Each structure stands twice: as C-alpha cells, then as structure tokens.
Amino acid sequence: MANILTRRRFLESSAAAAALAAGAAPVFSKSPNEKLNIACVGVGGRGRGNFDGVKHENIVAICDVDDRNLESCARQVPKAQKFNDYRKMLDKVQKQIDAIVVATPDHMHAPISTAAMVLGKHCYCEKPLAHNPFECRVMAKLAEKHKLATQMGTQIHAGDNYRRVVELIQSGAIGPVREAHVWSGKSWSNGRHPDPSKTIAPPKHLHWDLWQGHVATKRGYAPRVYHPGNWRRFWDYGT
Asked: How confident is the model over 96-115, as pLDDT tens digits?
C-alpha cells in the first residue's frame, strides 16, 4: 500500500459507481475530506504494513487469528473492535464499514474478500489475489456486479522505479517491446507435512482452526512448520 494518496482517490472516485450498486444505498455518501471506515483482516507481517498504510483512516475493526498480532496492532487503534474470526467480524460491523483490507496467508484471500464484496464492501487484497483462476473470476464478477473499487497489493509496482519503466515503454523511448522475461529468485519448495503423530497442541495465542480456514485440509499444528511464514511451502496455504 505504498501509494496511499492514489488509493484513497481511487476509492473516493468510486462514489458515483457505488451509489448504483444493486439494492444498496451509496456507500460514500460523504465528502472527500471525511475518513473511510475500514476493517483490516490480518495485521501481522505484510498485514501490518497494509494496516500502517490505512491507519490514518477510521479503523473500525481489526481481525487476526494470532492474538499477539491482534494485541500489538490494537495498541495503535484502541477504539477498534477486535476479532479472531472474520465471519463474526463481518456479521457485527458490516453496516459500519466502507471497505476491507485483507492480508492473510494466500489460501484465505479469496474467501475473506468475497465475503466482504458480497456485502458491497470495497476491497484491497494483498497479493496474490487468490489461490486459483476460478477464485479470481468470482472476485472480478463480484466487483463488477456491486460496482466496487478493488485493488491487489503489489507494493513495488506503486513506486517511482516501476512507474518510470511503464512510461519508457508506453512512450516508445526504447523502441517496440516484443518479448519480456520475468523471474523470481525466491524458492518456497520442498514443503513436507509433519507426521500426524508428531503434531502438538497449538499455542494459546494462535487460533489454529481459524488459521487453517475452511478451504484447506485440516492438519495438526507443528512448531515452525506452517506458522508464521513457512506456509508458503505448501500448496494448501500458499501459491
């Protein structure tokens, strides 16, 4: 969420479109000077960076399955309502929020985002947008149906360096570009699920059942195997 001003203008410019959302009153029936009402799901790791990008707005609710992340974030927004389960959060605050920011492990991006979009909430979702193409198509259709402002978080593309590259290509300064090669030096392979007999009870601060969500195979907790970052090695949780 590097370019905060641009994102806010993007959301504010959607006021007219939001007013046309089927069966819903205008979400942005306020002046551009008023703050957006936002719920943040996932406030640790990359999620904390996203939270920092919108904390100048009105943070109505924060949600995280790890109580340590939740309590740490709550110190900055003591008036925000705290939740471990995003479903309970949406049930309670859906009439109080304009938008949602989703920054959980990959496998829950689409379920959480779509749950909010069905309610007519604008959505900023951390990369990758979803776990598979089908989920992406569902999200795109929801955004179109409800006339929502949406954005996927690819922070580096909001910086001056990448924008300069776009300008150079679009202006023709380097001639016609016929082919591009893209790669990543990161490797998150060789994930091995632990022997079920070796799993243990999760720590009290981690709501393990909620962390796994309702789309992945249920597995026992093993220290440092999945949480906080190694989940990227596993197709069930990463991409």
From this structure: 999 999 999 999 999 999 99
Backbone angles phi, psi at 170, to 5 degrees: -65, -30
Report how far Cα 56 is from the mean position of its chain's Cα atoms: 18
C-alpha torsion sign, points 221, 224, 226, 229: positive
Helix (H, G, I), strand (E, B) or coil at 30: coil
Closest CA to 98 of 121, 116, 131, 70: 121
User: pLDDT by residue (tens digit) across 154-181?
Assistant: 878 878 988 999 999 999 999 999 998 9
Q: Are β-strands 99-102 and 81-83 bridged in parallel, bridged antiparallel, or unpaired? A: unpaired
| Residues forming beta bridges with residue 58, ordered by sequence position | 37
Does an H or E element contain 72, and which? Answer: helix 67-74
Q: How far separated are the first and last CA of the chain, in Å rounded?
A: 21
CA distances from 200 to 64, 119, 150, 177, 210 (A): 21, 37, 39, 54, 16
- Tell me the backbone φ, ψ of residue 131, rounded to 5 degrees: -90, -20
Please tell me the distance from the alpha carbon of residue 146 to that of residue 125, in angstroms, as a whole number. 17
